[in-house]
Design a protein that fits this description.
By secondary structure, the protein is an alpha+beta fold. The chain folds into two domains: 171 residues, FAS1 domain, CATH 2.30.180.10; 139 residues, FAS1 domain. The chain is 42% helix and 23% strand. It is built from 15 helices and 15 strands. The strands form three sheets. Strands 10-9-15-14-13-12-11 form a seven-stranded mixed beta sheet. Strand 7 and strand 8 form a beta hairpin. The longest helix is centred in the N-terminal third of the chain and has 14 residues.
Amino acid sequence: MKRVLLVIALLAVLVAPVFAQDELPTIAELVVASAEAETPEFTTLLAAVGLADPAVLEALANPEAELTVFAPTDAAFAALAEALGEEAFAAVLEDTEFLTEILLYHVVDGVVMSGDVVARLEENDGSFAGPTLNGQSITVAGNVEDGITLDSANLVLEMIDIEASNGVVHVIDAVLLPETKTIAELVVAATEAEAPEFTTLLAAVAAADPAVLELLSDPEAELTVFAPTDAAFAALGEETINAVLADTELLTAILQYHVIAGVVYSADVVALLEENMGTFEVEMANGAVATVSQTEDGIFINEAQIVLVDIDAGNGVIHVIDAVILPPTE
């Protein structure tokens, strides 16, 4: 606790110079000023910034930056502490790397005003995903009348568009936590859900070369996986599925043909489609090439339609497809 108080005191000295009334403060200065107000707010956020990698404070204090910060209230941090338990919450504050990832998950590159959010929601049927500075995406959903959510947090509509010289702050009522499960762990979790999915995919990974599971389980990997649904596998027919599951080499090649090295979000795919007149090729993990294309019906990888996008994992992202894609044969 003494360390946290010391950090707050040091930050107040470093980033809270007196600024003229007609000057906008930086985001860092806003947070410090709020923590020192008669009715203080963002005291835990300020402490967290002080305990994270110094790059976080540097970004928020950089007058040349253009950032959007979704700032959790003190009550939001208190709720997280209660949910985790005080010991586990203290461990998060002491884990510099994880704490830094959490804070960066609350920051978006560029200035995004509330009007921009509402407009994009209207353009995308009430939901869209946006990239954050930690590399993962937050899901924004809802409308002005019913409320707007960011993942599991509510946007506090009375505290939005707080302008700073280097961006804007919107207040949220919960702490956003980036996904830490690996792709392999997410697949397992999906099979154990109330409405299970990816059960055949999990069986296929287990029957393939162990290198496939090792790759999907590697927390240091950066992968994009196109995951076929159970219905996609069922469409192959039971006889075909059993034959493939019995052929380790073929099964491994098929699974690797659903993986790309590197993290490719749906926004990246759309940008590449626009740059390449609606179609482009991508090398898969088995060395073969797949074709991504866009028609009036949607976006496809080979013959499979992408039906759900941007499921974040600690080591990449998952896009769900409605068919199993098969690597080309000689």
